[in-house]
Amino acid sequence: MNRKLVSTGLFSLLMLFVFSLKAQKEEIDAIIDKAEAVSHFKFLAADELMGRDPARAEIDLAALYIANQFEKYGAKPLEEMGSFYQKVPLRYSNPPVVGTIYWNNDTLQHGEELLVLAGDDVQGDFEAVVVGYGLEEDYENVNVDGKWVVARVGAPNRLSPPELFAAGREKMVLARSKGALGLIEMYNVPTTPWTLLVNYLNKPQMGLDTDPDAEKSIPYLWMKDLTGERIQAIRDESSHINVDIRGKINRKISGKNVVAYIEGTDETLRDEFLMLSAHYDHVGIGAPNAAGDSIYNGARDNAVGTAALIQAAQYFGIHPPKRSILLCAWTAEEKGLLGSSYFADHPPVELSDIVYNLNIDNAGYNDTTLVTVIGLGRSTADRHLQEAAKTFGLEAIADPAPEQGLYDRSDNVNFAKKGIPAPTFSLGFTAFDAEIAKHYHQASDQIDNFDLDYALKYWKSYILSAELIANDPDKPLWKKGDKYEDAGKNLYGSDYPE
Ligand SMILES: [Zn+2]
Description:
Elements: H1 3-31, H2 34-44, H3 59-72, E1 85-94, E2 98-103, E3 106-109, E4 114-118, E5 122-130, E6 148-152, H4 161-177, E7 182-187, H5 194-201, E8 205-208, E9 220-224, H6 229-236, E10 240-246, E11 249-262, E12 273-279, H7 299-318, E13 324-330, H8 338-345, E14 354-360, E15 370-374, H9 382-391, E16 395-398, H10 412-416, E17 424-427, H11 434-439, H12 452-471, H13 485-492
Parallel strand pairs: 5-6, 6-7, 7-9, 12-13, 12-14, 14-17, 15-16
Antiparallel strand pairs: 1-8, 1-11, 2-3, 2-10, 4-9, 5-10, 11-13, 15-17
Bound molecules: zinc ion (ZN).
């Protein structure tokens, strides 16, 4: 073919492309109105929501607001769910006010040489029985009915922290089934220092309530015993304990993911979803700052992202793309990515029908000429994000602080692990520096110090990115050699070249 013809052809293709981007920009500009967009942002970051803590009631106002906006803009609840809410079973626990064991002329206190990990309040005198590791075989010829069981922590070859907790849960169920009234594990693992455990465990905790035996738990404690002297003394000298545990909180909470969809226009592609997601929770109330402010509004983290999701509903409600759009607002990200984790394990649609997850989450920003995409460079959809940002006068850059491990610290990772390409679309930052730390998880993360003109460009770039990906006939794939590429092959099979 003639060289000139080729370049003319390329030129007109390019012009067509530029023209259609320009048209898409105009449509987004026409629909996304600054005052309306900012009103969503303001509501979500308002003091009245008390920092959107999943352990507090006010977070339900945020969930209700998001669901109402989705509905208002024409998004629908998934038939499989029957409502905009996916209930997420959560469990919240708080350390006891008093946690003391009097034993052998010694007084052991919670938070010092004792940790009360589970169970209800209890007071009284009890007989303690040592049963090895507290496994089934250790109970042979031992009667623990009406007594407290004392065992070594973990099990042979099960001594990493997650293994210790898993073994503890099993032992608790077993001890209870044998008629025991409580379980104390004697902690002697040198690889995980006791003080580290106390710092980590002696504070409010939230987790997914997936343990069917949690209701039946007996008091479960760890006692520091690095040398093994105490377990020896309980066996040989004094098996009498007096226990006083008061004020421990164990509460079930029904968390909510807010989920909606907008059907795509293409006969075939509409069976596939582009998942747009943002966590809407934040860290709640905390220590007051110098200005006396104790409400952690989480404007950057992540009211701004949740507002983007609402605007995506608004835009795609009017201009549905070829693929269907799945809108997901996650709860309890700040408690360990819990809402998204629950969804990934209990998906109301087939995960293999979700071709891509464009997550949006933030710590903060220090450069208003950028969007920073955590995970840029890892999938074949990158160019859409770059073009979308450029169309609104921004530049998309990749993660500048890989040492922070941000990709694996937000909700996107729960889907990447399943094989779905899942970057996080963040406000522009060039380093995780003092400017970011100034507001990150601080009471000062609020709207009055946020550049709202920049917010608008960021939101629009997100919507255009989503539109380009949802309309691209090519399915986004992990780049070759990515750590999640194999998961992608498992999920999508033949979409990946041999
Ligand atoms: Zn956060």
